[in-house]
């Protein structure tokens, strides 16, 4: 399982076909990729890591505070392209990405663990598998990639 985390002052995800919009301010935008061998433990590990990752600045301008410390929000977006392989040719393949029947329960577990850690009101998400428009105002910028298997 892989997350790409961006520290944001604001972020929103829109799915026009579903008349859907979710937004946060400030916090972390988390893109979540799931691969075939991922298990529930991976979702729990990464959710806990995202909850406690110290990427917000303290009074000394050092990254020393977590999203929980600042009472920030999370926006979760499923992103199978985090497992793209472009090593051959110019078109990436996505065979390392988990199929929906595997990925959806893990996506839901990741979100439920974040809600357990931070409260329902602090976690928003996109729609799994939908084509989404995402607006981001990065802060820093701070972008971090974490794999559960390392």
Give the SSE layout.
Blueprint: E1 2-15, E2 20-24, E3 27-33, H1 40-52, E4 56-57, E5 63-65, E6 73-78, H2 100-118, E7 123-125, E8 133-147
Parallel strand pairs: 3-6, 6-7
Antiparallel strand pairs: 1-2, 1-3, 1-8, 4-5
Helix pairs in contact: 1-2
Your description of this structure?
The chain has 150 residues and is of the alpha/beta class. It has one domain: 3-Layer(bba) Sandwich (D-tyrosyl-trna(Tyr) Deacylase, Chain: A), CATH 3.50.80. A hairpin with a 5-residue loop joins strand 4 and strand 5. The N and C termini lie close together (10 Å). The mean pLDDT is 97.
CATH architecture: 3-Layer(bba) Sandwich
Total count of helical runs of at least 4 residues? 2
CATH class: Alpha Beta
Kindly, what is the distance between the CA atoms of the first and last residues, rounded to a whole number of angstroms? 10 Å
CATH topology, anyone? D-tyrosyl-trna(Tyr) Deacylase, Chain: A
Whole-angstrom Rg = 15 Å
For the record, the count of structural domains works out to 1
Query: Could you give the count of β-strands?
Result: 8
Mean pLDDT: 97
- SSE order, one letter for each helix or strand: EEEHEEEHEE
Keywords:
single chain, 150 residues, alpha/beta, D-tyrosyl-trna(Tyr) Deacylase, Chain: A, six-stranded mixed beta sheet, two-stranded antiparallel ribbon, 2 helices, 21% helix, globular
């Amino acid at each position: 399982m892989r997350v790409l985390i961006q520290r944001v002052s604001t972020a929103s995800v829109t799915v026009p076909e579903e008349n859907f919009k979710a937004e946060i301010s400030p916090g972390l935008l988390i893109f979540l990729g799931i691969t075939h061998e991922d298990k529930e433990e991976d979702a729990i590990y990464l959710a806990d890591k995202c909850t406690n990752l110290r990427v917000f600045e303290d009074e000394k301008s050092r990254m020393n505070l977590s999203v929980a410390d600042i009472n920030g929000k999370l926006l979760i977006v499923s992103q199978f392209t985090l497992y793209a392989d472009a090593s051959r040719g110019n078109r990436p393949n996505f065979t390392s990405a988990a199929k929906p029947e595997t990925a959806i329960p893990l996506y839901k577990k990741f979100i439920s663990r974040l809600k357990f850690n931070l409260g329902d009101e602090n976690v928003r998400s996109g729609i799994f598998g939908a084509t989404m428009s995402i607006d981001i105002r990065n802060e820093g910028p701070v972008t971090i990639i974490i794999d559960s298997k390392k």
